[in-house]
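As noted in the main text, all predictions were made from sequence alone. Below is one such record, for tyrosinase.
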Amino acid sequence: MKISTLVSVAVATVQFGHAAPFSPPGPGGDFGPIEVRGVGHLHDNFLKKRAIDSQNQMTDTNKGLVGGIEAGNVGNRMVNRREIRELAAYAVAGDNIPGRVYDLYILALRRTMTRSPADKNSWWQLAGIHGRPFVPWNNRQPGTRGSALISDPANGAFTGTGYCTHGSTLFPTWHRPYLAYVEEVLWASAALEVRPALAPKAPNGWNQKDWDEERVKWERALEQLRIPYWDWGLDNADLPPQAYARTHKFKYFPARKEKDFPEWENPLYTFKFNPNTYNAGSNFGNDRFRNWFRTLRHPPTEVPGVGDNINECRATLRQNGNNVRQQVHELLLRSLPSDKQANIREPGKINTASDPARWGAFSNRVGNNGASVESIHDGIHVWVGGPYGHMTSVPYSSFDPVFFLHHTNVDRLFAIWQAVNPKSYVTPQQNGGGTYGVPSNQIDDGNSPLEPWLTRAGWRFNSNTVRYTETFGYGYEEVPRHDYTNSPTGLRRFAMEAVHRLYANSVTSSSKRKRDLYTSEENQGLDNSIVNNKYYEWRVDVSTDRAALNGSYSVHFFLGKPDRDYNKWTSQPEFVGDYVVFTHNMEAPPGTDSATINTEITGSVPLTDAMVHSFGQNLTSLNPSDAKPFLIKNLRWRVTDSTGRPVRARNVKGLKVSVSISHTTLATDETPWTQYGEWTFLTDIARRIGKDGGPDKVGIPDLSSTSTTVAPTTTEAPAYNTDLPTLVTLTTSSAEEPTTEAVATEAPTSVAEDVEEIPTPTSADATESTVEASSTVSADDSSPTDD
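Prediction:
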């Protein structure tokens, strides 16, 4: 079910209030009797009872679903983190417990954001762990018990970054304790909002019986409180309305009656900085962010006083929604690569007997084929932030409240992937630039410390000790480990069915294959494509240098001609999706030769859905015999830098584009999920389309004769802004002569010698035809295609 059917929230138009009715923090900025000492502390002491575990804690009127857990059948279940729109829907529906959970979450965010920046548990410091201001958190210094934290540049630490591990085998695991700690702080903040307000004796205006019931409901809500996630694989990747509504109207509020429920500024919309904090000696950097008093999404310029553009943010996300959903589906259901596929770039270096190829391909964007959880995550960052916003910048992204909704979904996909792949986990990998606590170019593995996170006993967390979400007292609906404690096979099946149900594409979703959902041409194209319950999946594979443009950039893909005006690229019908490079400037750590840092990253963009929508437009099926000529003629790409301006594709260092194919089996009653076949590179397509943006060999229009119109700045942009002027309009363009340079996507010769034969079905008894796999390419083979 689409999230949009669950909840519809209007953006309030009342004036913002500036009151902060919170009880003050305790001495020293801690939580008084509830001190958040480290990951696992509160979970050990307060969240041990992870769910309502006996019926005597609930009244007869509240039987049924309590926080998504069936009353009377709770046992030792984890409390599930919920999708933000689903959780908010309970509040709209007036559900007693989950509705209170959502309002508690808002209360906790507000309290955390108003804490002194000097407090280690303030939003300023929690967000600063990820990147800026590049300082030790919670006084973590070398020599701390169990600590390997390195802060001395002479010994290899990179003090020009935060703690977060990007482009690393540790990417999914580092964020797990980070999110757990933020969840812990928010829980403690919520407890301070509820418990002092709910004294045993009923206050004026309440009878004792009603008051006792009210207190029980809030305690249950507190036990159920976990941070929510934003599932960008649903609802066409649209930004949840809870994240951009300017105000929040409480449905429930501790110790108040409905007529007194307040309406406040929504803490999920933005975080307001304390100017005295980030302008004075805080190492917050000299970027545009020092000139903005709050976090912004898709601001049209980088000048002081500009507002954000939520409409543009949402439009960019929706334009890539199909792309994201297909990527998630394939990421979680892809088959284990064979030796040939796993070693496509470096033959002989991977031993698939221990299953490392699967973890490497899932966990991060370095040296793999296809989309990883990190590469998908990168796109969300940039699409939310736009050219200039906080989410687009690695060191500043975590200050935007949507960051934690986003990363909690990454953790959820990590948990689902673990259920589908129970034998695969963190494998050794050389890191690149390192982090604040990890030296550059070292080999990271399951025992590498996840700085700055310590257990309650003071020992370092590592990937092996954060393997299971139960460690931190939470779970996810798609991974009910409590129901399959002795059956990993059963849990795997449950998770795979959930993935298919949520994210299947136009071909794999049976509900979308009904004839009434397609034109006759589309339906005929599907009929031609599906033979013996199999069809062909198509995708573009991308490899590039993350340092090529000294910041984030995007590669936009099309099935047809890109518009002359690059502002229209992602909204035109021919647009397929973006491959996004999310990175910071590539300054090398002190004492490190930049040439030793591996800056190659990889990802993919699905083509299948876009090709289905092209049926009737010179494409009759997904079979290679029909699809290859279509792609050779129509597949194009363009590149834009961090400001959204075009950069010629051939000038982007390391950029390589190729097409891959997978013979895929549709779901059946016996196996109710898609079974992807191995992915095979089709370099005959790559050499025909070249490397400069497609068969026209243009890359980008000539920008020498352009005029720019900069949008006026505003102190505060409206929540729904549909009238912002176009930022840049091209007035002229010119195409260059076709080039005969070969595509740079060349697979190793050893792979080319083992060409896989792929059947091209034409009927139930289809004969097999050969699709050319990876091979070396000669420039002489690159012939221009008529355009």
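The chain has a mean pLDDT of 74. The longest helix spans residues 171-194. These features were considered when defining construct boundaries for the mutagenesis experiments described in Section 2.9.
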